[in-house]
Design a protein that fits this description.
The protein has about 120 residues and is mostly helical. The protein contains 4 helices and no strands. The chain has helices at about 20-50, 50-65, 65-90, 100-125. The chain starts with 18 loop residues before the first helix and ends with a helix. Bound molecules: protoporphyrin IX containing FE (HEM).
């Protein structure tokens, strides 16, 4: 029987840190990064389509270390969220629900994101 103080919704502090849980938290985190990236992207588009001075300033900003880092973070969030989103959709459809498949698909998604992150880092720097 549930104890009187058992939480109605599981919390981070009572989860076990398994690959599936890490993948889920990272999905949420990447979703937040993507949502925050949208206004930044619109701001960049605005700069790119303004005056020639605005265009040059936007390009210079994108080539700065902070600009490259922002592109790297947003791109990594997108590739991770995309891959893990496909994984979630497969799980929603009932594919790969065994414990072993849940864990290996979580590792696979994280490995793909890491490889992409390294490759993109090499391209951007
Ligand atoms: C690229 C293709 C994308 C796929 C395949 C995808 C897939 C998904 C899926 C399946 C979920 C539900 C996760 C769950 O069941 O908890 C989700 C959540 C979410 N997505 Fe996406 N998504 C994509 C792109 C985006 C983009 C572009 C954004 C933001 C601009 C975004 C923001 C979010 C947010 C904020 C959540 C809620 C996170 C949470 O509370 O768990 N997604 N996405």
């Amino acid at each position: 029987m549930a104890t009187k103080h058992a939480p109605l919704s599981p919390r981070l502090s009572i989860y076990r840190w398994l690959p599936g849980m890490i993948a889920s938290i990272a999905h949420r985190g990447s979703g937040i990064v993507l949502v925050l990236s949208v206004p930044c992207y619109l701001w960049i588009l605005h700069g790119m389509t303004g005056s020639p001075q605005d265009f040059d300033a936007t390009v210079a900003m994108l080539h700065s270390p902070l600009g490259r880092l922002s592109l790297w973070v947003a791109s990594l969030a997108l590739i991770y969220h995309f891959c893990n989103g496909i994984r979630f959709l497969c799980l929603d459809a009932g594919w790969g629900e065994s414990r072993m498949m849940m864990r290996s698909s979580a590792w696979l998604v994280m490995a793909i994101a890491m490889l992409f992150g390294v490759a993109l880092g090499v391209v951007l720097w």
